[in-house]
Amino acid sequence: MIVTTKVQDMQTMMQQYRLEGKTIGFVPTMGYLHEGHVALIKKAREENDIVALSVFVNPLQFGPNEDFARYPRDIERDERIAKENGVDVFFCPSVEEMYPRPLSVQVVVKERVDVLCGKSRPGHFDGVATVLTKLFHIVMPTRAYFGMKDAQQVAVVDGLIRDFHFPIELVAVPTVREEDGLAKSSRNIYLSPEERKEAPALYQALQRAKQAIENGERHPETVCALVKDYIQANTSAEIDYVEIYAYPELKPLEKLRGKVIIAVAVRFANARLIDNIVMDVK
Ligand code: PAF
């Protein structure tokens, strides 16, 4: 596995692979790799000649009161996991390398951001879209891999790729879960043992919503209320939101029909958790 911290080296190397006609699968991450990331690496490994993985905790996508400084980091462990899972190129630039001077141009996301996490994290997806625009130009991938756990991010990246004509195929990979249903996340380590026991209630609530829809329920408010009640009854977490939209447009629906996302975000004492399911409603 080649490891580099330099934008120029990375770009030159990737350009060479493209000239050789190799397909490149790109897995952008903020590190502290877990099985969710490994699922992305494995999928990229199956589908491409070269797998590139980036580890970069992007300050631009953290708000002033968010956990940028506290975000877990362990680059040696990340390198080991990447290598074990067949990554060819490991790109881990510093903040200075990625942002050597204040940006004179920034990407602003206009659609699909005024709901779900975007609503409570103003500027977050502008930061994501900006760093991905940079990374896409550095890595020049054939395909880019993202986890469906952050379904809003997938929707935003879909818009970015289409609007800016990136010749990249977006691959959305299903959420990887613990045995008890809790979605894998770097932030799960912040849960107390008690909270960790409660956390699977998020997925259970989503499963109940799915069941209700399968049984004929079509009113978004009724489904949201069901999810909220279940989470409130089974956890000590504070609910940030429970919302249902058309997916990937993230537009509200009067009656459930077509592809929909049911998404939740809750706050435990030291961790904010998100989860969602996407389903086709006939
Ligand atoms: O999902 C993430 O880890 C980040 O938002 C991403 C896509 C690597 C951009 O910084």
TrEMBL record:
Which residues are noted in the entry as (R)-pantoate-binding?
61, 153
**Source taxonomy:** Bacteria, Bacillati, Bacillota, Bacilli, Bacillales
**Keywords linked to the UniProt accession:** ATP-binding, Cytoplasm, Ligase, Nucleotide-binding, Pantothenate biosynthesis
Where is this protein localized, as stated in its record? Cytoplasm
This chain's protein is named: Pantothenate synthetase
Q: EC top class, in one word?
A: ligase
* Catalyzed reactions: (R)-pantoate + beta-alanine + ATP = (R)-pantothenate + AMP + diphosphate + H(+)
Positions contributing to ATP binding: 30-37, 147-150, 176, 184-187
Which Gene Ontology cellular component terms are annotated?
cytosol
Which Pfam families does the UniProt entry name for this protein? Pantoate_ligase
| Function per UniProt | Catalyzes the condensation of pantoate with beta-alanine in an ATP-dependent reaction via a pantoyl-adenylate intermediate.
User: Which family does this protein fall into?
Assistant: Belongs to the pantothenate synthetase family.
Which pathway features in its UniProt record? Cofactor biosynthesis; (R)-pantothenate biosynthesis; (R)-pantothenate from (R)-pantoate and beta-alanine: step 1/1
Residues in a coiled coil are none
Q: Which organism is it from?
A: Parageobacillus thermantarcticus
UniProt entry tagged with the keyword Cytoplasm? yes
GO biological process: what's one of them?
A: pantothenate biosynthetic process
